[in-house]
Predict the structure.
Amino acid sequence: MKIRAFLLLSVVTACAACGASTPPPPPLEPTAEEPRERKTGGLPSVSQELGSIDPKKVEQTFKNLQVGAIETCHKQGRDRIEFLTGDVKVFLRIDGSGKVKYGFFEQTSIGDRETEKCILGALANASWPKPEGGEAEVRSGFGWGSGGEREPTSWSSDKVTAALADAKDVKSDVGKCKSGVTGDFVVTAYVEHDDSAPAKPAPAKRGKKGDKDKGGKFKAIGVAPPSKEGAEKIDCIVDALKPLDLPSPGSYAAKVTFTL
């Protein structure tokens, strides 16, 4: 299974000292500026403000990681989840020394937090081009398609959100994790049959619902946060969701995306 690059890379640089002496002529007339987004052959599109960073070197750094450390993360994930696929869009803030100040997934449909953390670690440990005149913000996307294995059944989000609405304790814990953060967390997860669940549901008492819709559990969970602050809450959210009782997908796993 080969990694695929599917989104144009975007670079934005921020001024570190806008009052510094002898800056470039502030602000240039619109007719004198290059377009903020451009395509040059096979190169990524680049948007630049104050300061500068070499887009070709940024592109090459991503390419090296995608065939090296990032691909290793995916292979390790597939050792646990054979049908692990999905796309990501990553945001990185790079400081003046070429180190990642912070990063998170603006979008991810991988569905496995361990793989996502491994990828972010690979990006953080890489050496990036040093921006000139300020820090740089870099965005890029890539992903993995099916390698020929059977894909999980696609679930609608209500299968999880309905279960979450009934699980007051889990819902409360998720709410505590999200506290202080504005915006939606988009969760992608794999669901499998819970072999520890009773083989047959207990008969329902008169006037009460039985547990016929139970018997499933999360196999793996991944999360795209709404912001940098939200990224710090992801592990808490994943841990809060793990105990949730879900419908059983049957003999083969399901994949689902829902919003918190």
